[in-house]
Write a structure and sequence with these properties.
The chain is α+β, with helices and mostly antiparallel strands. It is 22% helix and 38% strand. It holds the Pfam family PhzC-PhzF.
Amino acid sequence: MRFQIVDAFTDTLFGGNPAGVVVIPDGKDYPEDEVMRRTAAELRYSETAFVRREGDGIFRTRYFTPAAEVELCGHATIGSAYALMQLGMARLGNTIRYETLAGPIDIALQENSILMDMADPKAYGVIEGDEAVRELYRIMGISAEGQGVWSKNPSVQLKPEKISTGLIDIMLPVKDEEELERIAPDFPALTELSRKYEVVGVHAFTVNGKDGLIHARNFAPLYDIDEEAATGTSNGALAYYLYRYGVLTADVVNTVIQGEKMGRPSRVDTRIVMQGGQPGVKVGGLAVTLAEGEINI
């Protein structure tokens, strides 16, 4: 089977978030689930996408972390779509469709960005209660005091909330970039907290970036991902979260900077689009191939 290692949400090698991509030969079935999980663990990236062509422009795609299968992965989607173009299985300028456990995902293969539709955004509730909020921030290694402030409108109080555009994460607002950098999670405690809240992990962010952009860090130790350099699903969820608070508006491209603490800066573009009067989310970015070859599974 052919494979590639692709850095997604960047146009520079060793930037962005790397993903494994394994392409299932036409007419062949997927390997057993445990084989795919162990392949993801062997490749040692946070996610590996296993892609099989189902028809003209339609691909069945499954995503595995080193620990388990997940319904969707944004950076592995962007990376695998780029890989399909490099392998001649998809063409620039076209829109392809992924059939995933999170539902069908349309992906526009544009020259300046690979732009994917996220699953319908859903809010699963604010983290309620002072003690629960303090516990959450404490596990992340910072205090809950003074967080959630939007400098452009101090009357808006951002609160920790569970949001999904395919995978549920806790959106965790912090006051500035310095506070974001100070985060040092208690990973065993965060693993248990993620299990308790039935989320993939925590997406910490600040809307008060010195450069005027949103900055974020993502942690998912429940799935053997201590920190991730670029997370499409989480930033899609963040776009919906911030739209609901009035921080973002529809039909404007917003850029999230992620991965700085890891030395792999990423640029993740998000856009809220109105569809039948309801907000939808698109997430996009560029990608570059690091390696390719054959994998014997």
